[in-house]
Prior knowledge:
Elements: E1 4-6, H1 9-19, E2 24-33, E3 40-48, E4 53-57, H2 65-71, E5 77-80, H3 84-94, E6 101-103, H4 104-110, H5 118-126, H6 146-157, H7 159-172, H8 176-188, H9 209-229, H10 233-236, H11 239-247, H12 253-257, H13 264-267, H14 270-278, H15 297-317, H16 321-324, H17 327-336, H18 344-351
Parallel strand pairs: 1-4, 2-5, 5-6
Antiparallel strand pairs: 2-3, 3-4
Helix pairs in contact: 4-7, 9-11, 15-17
Amino acid sequence: MEYIYVDNEQKLEKTCKELETQKTIAIDLECENNLHHYGSYISIIQISTKEKNWVVDILAIKQIEPLKKILENEEIQKIFHDVSFDLRILKYELNIQPKNLFDTQIAALFIGEKNVGLGSLLEKYFSINKESKFQMADWTIRPINPEMMTYAVKDTLYLIKLKELLETRIEELNRTTWLREELKHLEQKEYYYKEPEFEDLKGVSKLNQKEKIFAQKLYEERETIAKKTDKPAYKIISNRKILEITQNPPRTKEEWTKIRGIHPRIKAMAPRLYYETQKLNIKQEPQQKRERKNYTEEQKTQLQELEDTRVKIGNQLGIEPYLIMTKDQVHEVVRNKNYKSLREWQKELVLKETKLFT
């Protein structure tokens, strides 16, 4: 499998001049995502046309403006598969928001495919076996293993053919307008990426106020150590262990030093952490429960009707009900008593089956 490795500004400039002449290109990213190192960032970007393949080494290139112009060029269609994370990390790290998108995963959903992972689709339509052994690989190591490069290029090599095949099937089903609307919505969304924060920890809401204060201190110490040592945070101390220690802290300084599954630098902080946990024994005031806005009986009936409607339409069309309406859209419709949260194609299908809010 041939590809061009782009690892400096001159090669990138030359690559982008070739890409300027294309109407359609396929794109994929390989990232570090707090798995081997601290933080999330792009390592390489794979690009394919019908004739050529490129691997752009983002870690080696400082100036990526030519690539930004290509990805934001509305005249060139960019094909991704399962584009959501890619768009968020591109915006977060490189301030790039690609235009003129085609997502082969969305297209596959619109023809009723159930297994919409790229590997499943390549196997079904092209009898291509996409290896999974490099899914957890460290893409920051240079030089990149040749087998890993081949694996990465496969992610874009067949995307244009897959897009054409799916488009033909969608046209046969008269769903082209639906797909275009969905892709336009995808392009117009605001994309944000943020690293996990303390409040994102699963189970943190169940801690009382003093436990939260201690857990947050432990969390922040973890982040500082992880960043300094360039290790993923979970290798310093896992989220589960933070909550476990907070709710059942060691009774002595010595016990702190014997905890398994935490980084030595956390253990070295035993005297200070022991002192902090002693404060947790102070009697706590019971937390006030947040008031929840309950639905009326009429609204509950409306929610059920819309739920039944989306399931019925999905079954009739052979596609997932959440494409007809997501659960969030169902709730927005009932709360707002209108269908403004739906795309036109969704609204048309739903209004054929229900008279709510008309």
